[in-house]
Design brief:
Layout: H1 6-17, H2 22-38, E1 44-48, H3 54-61, E2 71-73, E3 80-85, E4 90-96, H4 105-111, H5 119-132, E5 137-143, H6 146-151, E6 157-159, E7 166-168, H7 177-181, H8 190-193
Parallel strand pairs: 1-2
Antiparallel strand pairs: 1-3, 3-4, 4-5, 6-7
Helix pairs in contact: 2-3, 4-5
Zinc ion binds next to helix 7.
Length: 197
């Protein structure tokens, strides 16, 4: 189990995440359950199946961060996370089990994405999450695919034939940005390009 009291967790959540959001509170229970199921090992990585809230619960409560390479985010759109052994790939996946939320009306609507809470409802939702604890979660053993474990290793970089920047050789001669996956507009409007002159 993580070593923070719930008061400490709420304070750190506010500082780190902006607020102790419902997703972060649920995420804390999910991390607790996963850590408890994983046993004593310190050699684990974390994987979140959504970028929503869960990565911050992992970063607040475990040594796995996006920056140290031990937190992986794979956008599967599911409110689930797993902790797994770095070498064997054996681990535990914990998810919000919506079938178990039927007794918690606010949590059930929140989980289904149809919750439009008033301030009163937010208080009710937070109370439901606290009282429900791990009873709305399910866990199962998982084994990470070899290709995914392998992909995390450092690999040689090559210069992109279009932009010249280094990128992993496995992505091909062009970097992903030059393959059309850049989030940036190719030609900046004049008023923006003047920023950094
Ligand atoms: Zn490029």
């Amino acid at each position: 189990m993580h070593s923070l009291s719930s008061e400490d967790f709420y304070e750190r959540a506010r500082l780190f995440h902006g607020c102790a959001s419902p997703g972060l509170m649920l995420g804390a229970s999910m991390v607790d359950l996963a850590l408890h199921s994983l046993g004593r090992t310190q050699q684990y990585d974390a994987l979140c199946e959504t970028s929503r809230c869960l990565p911050d619960a992992v970063q607040l409560l475990t040594p796995c961060t996006a920056g140290n390479g031990r937190l992986h985010i794979v956008e599967l759109g599911r409110f689930a996370l797993c902790l797994y052994h770095q070498v064997s790939g054996k681990g535990v996946r914990v998810y919000l089990d919506h079938a178990k939320t039927t007794g918690w009306p606010n949590l059930n609507r929140w989980a289904r994405g149809v919750w439009t809470g008033s301030e009163k409802d937010i208080v009710r939702l937070e109370r439901e999450i606290r009282h429900a604890g791990i009873s709305v979660l399910s866990a199962r053993s998982i084994l990470i695919q070899d290709t995914f474990l392998h992909r995390q290793k450092q690999e040689p970089g090559v210069a992109c034939i279009s932009c010249g920047e280094l990128h992993p050789a496995s992505m091909g001669p062009q970097c992903r940005a030059c393959q059309g996956r850049s989030p940036y507009i190719p030609r900046l409007p004049a008023e923006i390009s003047s920023f950094f002159r």
